[in-house]
Amino acid sequence: MDNKTKSYIVILVLIFIGIIYLDAQKPVPINWEPTFKLEDKAPYGLYLFDHEVEHLLNNKPIERIYETVYEHFEPLYDYDKSVDNYTVKGTIVAISKNYNIDQESTKELFYFVGHGNSVFISAEDFSKTLKDSLNFDNLSEFGIEKGLYFSLANPKFNSNKSYLFKEGIINTYFSEIDTTKTTVLGYQSIDNKTKLVNFIKVPYKSGFFYLHTQPSCFTNIHLLKGNHYQYTEGVASYIPKKASVFLMTNERKEKNVSNSPLRYIFSQPSLKWAWLISLIGIIIFMIFNAKRKQRVVPIIKPLENTTVDFTKTIGNLYYQEGNHQNIIDKKIIFFLEKIRNEYLIETQVLDDNFIKRLHLKSGKNIDDIKKVVQLINYQRSSYHQSIESDLIEINNAIEKILH
């Protein structure tokens, strides 16, 4: 490896190191999407809530559910019992942007609550089945630049105490409720005066639904901001704690995970770009290096056509020996062979029929054909030794027919 190649390699390595360093120094962009995922540390993830939920529920053990409601709770239903059919008791807790679950899970949810259990749902919108079954509806209004004031109805939480929430808040509230059955637990207000219902308790058979329209209060950004955590604690205090708590997640255990050994590298933007740039650099280096090392392809001269030279040599040999009759015989043989191959005419008998056929097929002058036939027949029937003039005469006659 010469010094020039080494210099290229050093420069390439320094460029890679510089790119990796600059990329690593860039701040990680913040994801402001409301994911509501337990492991998400973004502003609108539930990482802090997931780690503090035991404290919020008086150190009650939490079971995290990575399946749908139907998949998890249907096997826990004992059809042989007449009462207390579920083998577990407790409260399902679900926090998401929109609570729209499949029909089977919705049915299972009502079965679970109907057997003396509870469900706590905090979402900006709810499924139509849930609204129709519990006789409520909700509305959402955007453009709340100044934020919303949240408060709880129970005097124990000081009904005059309100909390101003701004980030990620939408003015979602219950526009219709069944006042004969529904208990109002909390409010929200734009001006801290006109109150709209955002937290209710709805009985269903032997259990209760707790419905809340502001899931953002459980996210990381609000649990860390000012006294917002106090409002979140107040809302969470309504979750029954006398039995198990089942925390529904927005993840699934069965989600596909790549088995590639490079999955961690590709999961990190800096490592991914470093890997791709290195790979491209190696390929470019191999291409250019192979081009520089390629041996020179030798120039091979094509074989010369020596047929003409050979013919001239043989002709000169015959001419020098003075054997004109031998040359005449060979010229005649060559001529007749040419006629047979090119015009497909028999040459055993050179008569008027031959002359006429050759004239029709070749288009040559009939007098020239007669002359060459006459000379050939003369040479065949003659017993004299030909001279140079005879050779020239028959050669000229043959050339007129062949060219």
Question: What would you note in describing this structure?
Answer:
The structure is a single chain. Helix 11 packs parallel to helix 14 (388-402), helix 12 packs across helix 13 and helix 13 (366-381) packs antiparallel against helix 14. The protein is rod-shaped and about 150 Å long. It is built from 14 helices and 13 strands. The chain is α/β, with parallel strands linked by helices and 403 residues long. The strands form 3 sheets. Strands 1-13-2-4-12-11-10-7-8 form a 9-stranded mixed sheet, with helices on both faces. The chain has a two-stranded parallel sheet with strand order 3-5. It starts with a helix and ends with a helix. Helices cover 44% and strands 16% of the residues.
Element layout with pairings:
Blueprint: H1 3-25, H2 47-56, E1 62-65, H3 69-73, E2 90-95, E3 98-99, H4 103-114, E4 118-122, E5 125-126, H5 128-134, E6 137-141, E7 148-152, E8 163-165, E9 171-176, E10 183-189, E11 196-204, E12 207-212, H6 220-223, H7 228-236, E13 244-248, H8 263-267, H9 269-293, H10 307-321, H11 324-343, H12 352-362, H13 366-381, H14 388-402
Parallel strand pairs: 1-13, 2-4, 2-13, 3-5, 4-12
Antiparallel strand pairs: 6-9, 7-8, 7-10, 10-11, 11-12
Helix pairs in contact: 1-9, 11-14, 12-13, 13-14
Sheet with the most strands: spatial strand order: 1-13-2-4-12-11-10-7-8
Mean pLDDT: 85
Q: In percent, how helical is the residue content?
A: 40-55%
Q: How much of the residues is beta strand, in percent? A: 15-25%
What's the tally of helices? 14
Main beta sheet, described?
9 strands, mixed
Distance between the termini: 66 Å
Pick out the low-confidence regions: none
What gross morphology would you assign? Answer: rod-shaped
Structural class: alpha/beta
Number of strands: 13
